[in-house]
Amino acid sequence: xxxxxxxxxxxxxxxxxxxxxxxxxxxxxxxxxxxxxxxxxxxxxxxxxxxxxxxxxxxxxxxxxxxxxxxxxxxxxxxxxxxxxxxxxxxxxxxxxxxxxxxxxxxxxxxxxxxxxxxxxxxxxxxxxxxxxxxxxxxxxxxxxxxxxxxxxxxxxxxxxxxxxxxxxxxxxxxxxxxxxxxxxxxxxxxxxxxxxxxxxxxxxxxxxxxxxxxxxxxxxxxxxxxxxxxxxxxxxxxxxxxxxxxxxxxxxxxxxxxxxxxxxxxxxxxxxxxxxxxxxxxxxxxxxxxxxxxxxxxxxxxxxxxxxxxxxxxxxxxxxxxxxxxxxxxxxxxxxxxxxxxxxxxxxxxxxxxxxxxxxxxxxxx
Length: 367
Fold this sequence. Notes:
single chain; alpha+beta; 8-stranded mixed β-sheet; 4-stranded antiparallel β-sheet
């Protein structure tokens, strides 16, 4: 398969550009390719030789699994123990799943179902929302880094920017309008709860991170990964870490998500009714490496679709001029700052310019 990939991979940008533009101009995304009945993936999706092959065949060490934390116990005597569980997970994994988080199962199920229906709308309906204008608050696209990545990912995304000004519900497609507005409110409350626990886990007051605007911005991304005819040649989502303070992820039961931990890829098995929390690059930066933003990826699969709803907490569209740097209360002579100051605008601009690749954005801001 690696040899086949080498033949089909387009290494030259000038060679790739016409095919990238042709794909983009369809405004139908990856699902449009599947609906057309393709049996081989287009060359723009093929991974280069050095990324193909055995890397996807890594097995987990027995017993490794993402920590699961019961949020139903944070109001009682076990709060301190839960805070410690959060601290350990955020430090060693950068990922943990939460149970008893307060969002009803009915809302989770409807969010996934309506997301599926939205991606299954006729191509001409979705084309009205198709855009690469990042300032458009409701939009549909495939691969935000299509023109800068080395190969395209097997994934479409529907985006709703909920802040800083309240999003007008009429901008959202009717098929998913009500549930997105409801889910947004509930996941915001959960985000505030998790950020409180993370603040305490750093030894700070509960509202310290919230007061830094860590939950000021909210963006909901509905990812759709169709079944792929040649999953061994591409990726659902390339290896990356999130340009956020915090991400809360809802996923259906079609797996594929992996987290890099202890020098290997660990499968994140979906747990019914649980939500996945992951630390973003900005939280690693302000925590001065007390928390880790883990690299993760999604494998393409012959079975689909995989549907996931990612809620980014990051003031991408917030007009604040706040500059972020390691929190002073965490620093000392023995623990100096590890990162330089950065504005949100500069951080996001760098992330989007490089796209998804193995070079982490946070490394660019290291002192």
